[in-house]
Design a protein that fits this description.
Blueprint (H helix, E strand, L loop, with lengths): L14 H8 L5 E7 L8 E7 L15 H14 L2 E7 L1 H7 L1 H16 L8 E3 L8 E4 L17 E3 L9 H24 L5 H4 L5 H10 L10 H4 L21
Parallel strand pairs: 1-5, 5-6
Antiparallel strand pairs: 1-2, 2-3, 3-4
């Protein structure tokens, strides 16, 4: 399979997909998310199935916004199938950020399988069933998906967005879509600066929360947000207890 030469830093290729192909899986897709550590806005999951080739796709965090946008457009043009799915702040508050992320990933895969599931964007629905996945350390519950003939195989290595073309492509779709969503949120709530920090725990965001309190776009159960708007008798989900990740 086409692969870039190995170097000092991880370069995207087809290693993990090849392992799954060797086990008998056929349609192996990449999955990645953006926004799990943010204090406001949705978690966004991208799912991408590419034809085997060499691509310029890289981890979305390693390139500037104009380049990300250009690469995301190329993903849409070249992918065999792709989906973008949101889990909004209300879903995150209700079930926890990890469960919301897993549910969004499942919705994307169901949509690509032709099931009537609401997604943010969908391109070229998969011709056959996606039977395996590569994710960026996201342990999707594939064992639960037998009822709808979902993917059964998975690889979830760390830094897969830097080591798999497909996971990198999924990261580009998720990141650029979420940035667009947060810029739109900034029009409605200009005081928070969402267009700049995208809902993460930047000093500007902390200051705005301290001054204004949270808006409906915030994840009310995340501890830094909840501290400014305590909800009597409410216990946040365990995986929302302390979210201080950055982009």
């Amino acid at each position: 399979m086409p692969e870039r030469p190995a170097g000092a830093h991880p370069t995207p290729g087809w290693r993990f997909e090849s392992e799954l192909w060797s086990e008998g899986f056929c349609a192996v897709a990449g999955v990645d998310e953006a926004g799990r550590g943010a204090w406001a806005g949705p978690v966004v999951v991208g799912v991408v199935l590419l034809p085997v080739a060499v691509y310029p796709f890289v981890d979305s965090k390693t390139v500037a916004a104009p380049r990300r946008e250009a690469l995301a457009a190329e993903v849409r043009a070249r992918a065999l199938a792709w989906a973008i799915v949101e889990a909004d702040a209300g879903e995150v508050d209700a079930v926890g950020v990890l469960n919301a992320t897993l549910a969004a990933a499942e919705r994307g895969l169901r949509a690509l399988a032709g099931q009537p599931v609401a997604v943010a964007e969908l391109g070229r629905r998969a011709a056959g069933a996606i039977d395996a996945l590569v994710t960026d350390y996201l342990r999707l519950p594939t064992q639960r998906w037998g009822a709808w003939d979902g993917p059964r195989g998975i690889r979830h290595p760390a830094r897969a967005d830097a080591r798999s073309y497909q996971v990198a492509a999924a990261s580009l779709l998720a990141k650029t879509h979420r940035d667009d969503v947060m810029r739109a949120a900034a029009v409605r709530w200009p005081e928070y600066g969402f267009e700049r920090h995208k809902g993460y725990g930047a000093p500007e965001h902390r200051a705005a929360l301290a001054r204004l309190g949270p808006c409906t776009w915030h994840r009310q159960t995340f501890r830094p947000v909840a501290a400014l708007a305590p909800r009597r008798g409410f216990d946040p989900p365990e995986d929302n207890a302390c979210q201080t990740l950055s982009e």
